[in-house]
Specification:
Domain DJ-1/PfpI: 11-184
Organism: Chryseobacterium phosphatilyticum
Number of domains: 1
Number of helices: 9
Number of strands: 11
Low-confidence stretches: none
CATH superfamily: Class I glutamine amidotransferase (GATase) domain
InterPro entries: Class_I_gatase-like, DJ-1/PfpI, INH-QAR
Helix content: 25-40%
Oligomer: single chain
Radius of gyration: 16 Å
Protein name: DJ-1/PfpI family protein
Order of helices and strands: HEHEEEEEHHHEHEHEEEHH
Pfam families: DJ-1_PfpI
Strand order of the largest sheet: 5-2-1-6-7-11-10
Largest sheet: 7 strands, mixed
CATH topology: Rossmann fold
Length: 206
Amino acid sequence: MKHLENGKPMNVAFLVYNQVEVLDLNGPLDVFVKANVLYPGSYNCYTVGITLDPVCTEANTMAIVPTYDIESSPRPDMIVIPGANPDQVMHYLHDDDFQNTVLKWVKDHANNGTVIFTVCTGSMLLSETGILDNYDITTHSMLLDALEKNNPKSKIQREVRYVDQEKLITTAGITAGIDAALYLIGKYQGQQAVDRIVELFEYQQK
């Protein structure tokens, strides 16, 4: 990635919204944070919300105060979109405000070269944006049929942990976000970086 080659950190924005799934968010986030600890200056990680108001996670177990709102966020090189409970995702697909603010922000950046990395049902959130059109994509196994129905221009990949389409990375359910984040660190910085993070995590990769 040019961001690592020119010495500037890659801006990695993690989208947060009401009822976001915690591990979808924190798994990949911690991978990039650890990579930046081990290789300082590689990644600038931050959260982005529709506003700076606290965002409640799934089941209202905690609240997250975003680092930036969508108006003040630095230009992201990558946007990570965690998923939510399927019922919540379906709600957002019919929420005009969410579509016209949060997902418009994502689409505008995608159209200008930002890499989009969805975790779990995060890919389903993009079904009305056109971002998924003509790509191979995946999601949590429980929503694969729904993803296919809602994205007739895309090719659904089943029984995979993640799908890399260069400008679009999608993953299977929840913990697959960790695997895809590790894969991306390896892609950008090499296997030694991955091995060090896996050792820190004491993570048993599949």
